[in-house]
């Protein structure tokens, strides 16, 4: 009886090993299949320091990073069915419009971009769905627009005009506030976090009508007034040279010191 | 010799009235200057023509009588013109003359005064209502939707002023029309989207519709809540944008 049990245990152990082996094979096969289902696209353009990048994506994640080169390097991973990408360099502007380039096609896979541009570039990116990330940009304009869902992350930005708009998703801005600058953040639902230096000076109109949750943190002062039963904060910090307009229809707004 | 001096001497030069030296100088200048040579040539042609055509004086048989007739004709025409102008002036003066003296009864005068007073007050109210500038702090935006007084309500009803609610309603109607248009386009396209995209679109549209319902409800309860009016406007714009942007896919 003891011997039989031992055999049975050995049989079960060997079966488990076999099953595990099979599962590993299946897992790796699918993983490789997943990777091979993507197509890579890469293209570079020589560019001036103040080049403008204008990108309209359908779905997928877009990451734009500033670098210390006079060159725009576009790399993209295209899920199948692969989208058409026809970048154009038009008098100081790099234009990529996947909506236009794929109009009339029934199904188009997501495209995940990683684009490197000179630090002083202007960046104007939008997508119908997916996340947008912009890092280390000091150009005149940074605009990130998501038609529906997705998070917007703007890190280490020093631009005079910043616009971030999304439907459902979070917005995070970490950067400097330039004098006379214009900053607009709009979301339908999510969290808007704005991380700016304590010495920033700006006029503020922040509206969170549904949650009435507007956290000014260290920027709270006597010049700030809650109006409309606490749904909006209007006021100024410092001499109020820049302008901040923040609206979160069904979410919260927070200011954080950088 | 310059051109001016030369051209002054051309006539005596052609008549051989100049001294030899001066004549030689003129000749030398004409040889060099095309412009003066042309003038000289023209003069020479005129002189030749005059020499070839002998002048014949035609003397009127009775010149004094002729001049008398001419002066009479001129005087008659001048008189006729003056008479016509005077007549026109008189007619114009008649046009602007009052046909009769103004005569009003006391009731007519009183009604006119009351009418003028009413119209001027209406114009003042309309002017104040329409041209009051908003203050820049943003806080006044909410106060500017203060309850309209009875007078303003009456004016609004008879269509003399447009109340904030009327403006908002008109704007909403315009936005709804645009939304309807884009929605039709989206409906025609959405079957071609993948499930992931369709679900994301629906979630966002649902979120926007919820916000629209909330603001509409608040505005039904409190039509003077400007902040909700502003948010409703903004939300409807976002809905329009969402539909427009997805209609391209």
Key terms for this structure?
heterodimer, A: 258 residues, alpha/beta, 10-stranded mixed β-sheet, globular, B: 249 residues, mainly alpha
Summarize the structure.
The complex is a heterodimer of chains A (258) and B (249). Chain A has 258 residues and is an alpha/beta fold.
Describe the structure.
Chain A is α/β, with parallel strands linked by helices and 258 residues long. In chain A, 15% of the residues lie in helices and 51% in strands. Chain A is built from two helices and 21 strands. Chain A is globular. In chain A, 42% of the residues are buried. About 3% of the residues of chain A have low confidence. Chain B has ten helices and no strands. The longest helix of chain B has 34 residues. The two termini of chain B are 88 Å apart. About 5% of the residues of chain B have low confidence.
How do the strands and helices of this protein lay out in sequence?
The complex is a heterodimer of chains A (258) and B (249).
Chain A: H1 2-36, E1 38-46, E2 52-59, E3 62-67, E4 71-79, E5 88-90, E6 93-97, H2 98-101, E7 111-118, E8 122-129, E9 132-137, E10 141-146, E11 152-157, E12 161-168, E13 171-175, E14 182-189, E15 191-196, E16 202-207, E17 214-215, E18 225-227, E19 232-237, E20 242-248, E21 252-257
Parallel strand pairs in A: 2-6, 2-8, 3-7, 3-9, 8-10, 9-11, 10-12, 11-13, 12-14, 13-15, 14-20, 15-21, 16-20, 17-21
Antiparallel strand pairs in A: 1-4, 4-7, 5-6, 16-19, 18-19
Chain B: H1 3-14, H2 20-32, H3 34-52, H4 63-96, H5 106-131, H6 140-143, H7 150-157, H8 164-189, H9 195-221, H10 226-246
Helix pairs in contact in B: 1-2, 1-3, 2-3, 8-10, 9-10
């Amino acid at each position: 009886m003891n011997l039989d049990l031992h055999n049975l245990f050995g049989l079960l152990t060997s079966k488990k090993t076999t099953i595990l082996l099979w599962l590993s094979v299946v897992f790796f096969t699918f993983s490789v299949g997943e990777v091979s289902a993507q197509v890579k696209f890469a293209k570079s353009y020589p560019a001036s320091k103040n080049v403008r990048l204008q990108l309209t994506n359908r779905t997928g994640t877009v990451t734009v990073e500033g670098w210390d080169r006079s060159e725009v390097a576009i790399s993209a991973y295209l899920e199948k069915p692969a989208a058409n990408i026809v970048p154009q360099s038009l008098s100081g502007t790099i234009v990529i419009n996947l909506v236009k380039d794929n109009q009339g096609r029934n199904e188009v896979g997501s495209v995940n971009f990683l684009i490197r541009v000179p630090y002083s570039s202007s960046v104007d990116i939008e997508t119908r769905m997916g996340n947008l990330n912009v890092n280390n940009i000091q150009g005149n304009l940074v605009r990130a627009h998501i038609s529906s869902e997705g998070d917007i992350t703007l890190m280490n930005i020093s631009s005079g005009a910043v616009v971030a708009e999304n439907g459902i998703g979070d917005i995070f801005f970490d950067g400097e506030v330039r004098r006379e600058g214009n900053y607009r953040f709009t979301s339908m639902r999510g969290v808007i976090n704005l991380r700016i230096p304590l010495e920033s000076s700006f006029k503020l109109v922040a509206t969170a009508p549904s949650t009435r949750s507007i956290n000014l943190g260290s920027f709270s002062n006597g010049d700030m007034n809650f109006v409309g039963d606490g749904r909006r904060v209007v006021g100024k910090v410092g001499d109020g040279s820049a302008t901040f307009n923040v609206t979160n229809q069904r979410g919260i707004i927070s200011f954080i010191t950088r | 010799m310059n051109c001016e001096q030369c051209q002054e001497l051309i006539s005596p030069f052609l008549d051989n009235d100049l001294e030899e030296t001066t004549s030689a100088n003129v000749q030398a200048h004409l040889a060099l200057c095309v412009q003066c040579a042309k003038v000289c040539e023209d003069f020479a042609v005129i002189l030749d023509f005059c020499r070839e055509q002998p002048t014949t004086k035609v003397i009127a048989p009775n010149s004094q009588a002729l001049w008398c007739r001419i002066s009479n004709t001129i005087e008659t025409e001048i008189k006729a013109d003056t008479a016509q102008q005077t007549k026109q002036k008189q007619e114009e003066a008649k046009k602007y003359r009052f046909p009769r003296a103004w005569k009003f009864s006391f009731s007519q005068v009183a009604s006119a005064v009351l009418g003028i007073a009413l119209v001027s007050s209406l114009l003042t109210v309309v002017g104040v209502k329409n041209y009051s500038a908003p203050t820049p702090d943003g806080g006044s935006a909410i106060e500017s939707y203060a309850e309209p007084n009875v007078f303003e309500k009456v004016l609004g009803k008879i269509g003399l002023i447009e109340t904030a609610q009327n403006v908002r309603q008109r704007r909403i109607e315009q936005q709804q029309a645009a939304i309807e248009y884009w929605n039709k386009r989206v409906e025609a396209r959405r079957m071609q989207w993948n499930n992931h995209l369709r679900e994301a679109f629906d979630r966002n549209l649902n979120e926007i519709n919820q916000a629209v319902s909330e603001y509409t409800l608040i505005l039904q309860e409190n039509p003077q809540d400007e902040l909700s009016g502003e948010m409703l406007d903004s939300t409807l714009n976002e809905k329009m944008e969402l539909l427009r942007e997805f209609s391209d896919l």
